[in-house]
Design brief:
The chain is mainly α. The protein contains seven helices and no strands.
């Protein structure tokens, strides 16, 4: 199940769900049927069957929560160090231009943290810490402002001009000149 803003269950919600599993475990020990447990706890029969299997194999301990499904691989302190590295710019890390791409950030993480993350994980990590996609703030060095202005004045009006006829038209394909 997906949750908004890339998050998972809160600690309270995880504890609530673990409590339901533990209630089911107590009922397993009492010998209650799966369908009755599912109805009383308002969960699916399949979930109760899965919990019963885990309970048989590992007892009540198997029904306890094992923590968040995907704890961050980079802690906040580690990300602060990474943020300092990113603040130095791509050229300080040997890249030829001043653009951060996800692949480049991934490379810096691999070099500095000795941690291999997928590009999607790098994106989620950056997003979680408030980074967003940005367009370049400056224009190309090769841009000729005079040529751009000239193009806007002379070429663009011709390109923009309508190609429609000035006279009355017709929607008929077989008799285009009919009124």
């Amino acid at each position: 199940m997906r949750y908004p803003e890339g998050g998972g269950l809160t600690a309270e919600r995880r504890a609530f769900r673990a409590g339901i599993r533990l209630q089911a475990g107590e009922r397993f020990m009492a010998g209650q049927k799966t369908a009755v447990i599912a109805k009383d706890l308002r969960v699916s029969v399949r979930s109760v069957e899965r919990w019963r299997r885990a309970w048989r194999e590992g007892g009540m301990e198997a029904l306890r929560s094992s923590g968040p499904a995907n704890s961050p691989t980079v802690t906040d302190a580690q990300f602060a160090v990474l943020e300092d590295e990113l603040g130095r710019g791509p050229s300080a890390h040997g890249f030829e231009d001043d653009r951060w791409t996800l692949a480049r950030v991934q490379t810096v993480i691999r070099r500095r943290r000795r941690l291999t993350l997928s590009v999607a994980t790098v994106w989620r990590l950056l997003k979680r810490h408030g980074w967003s996609w940005q367009a370049p703030a400056h224009r190309a060095l090769e841009r000729d402002e005079h040529a751009v202005e000239l193009w806007k004045k002379e070429v663009w009006p011709r390109v923009k001009a309508s190609r429609r006829r000035v006279g009355a038209g017709s929607s008929s394909r077989t008799r285009p000149d009919s009124p």
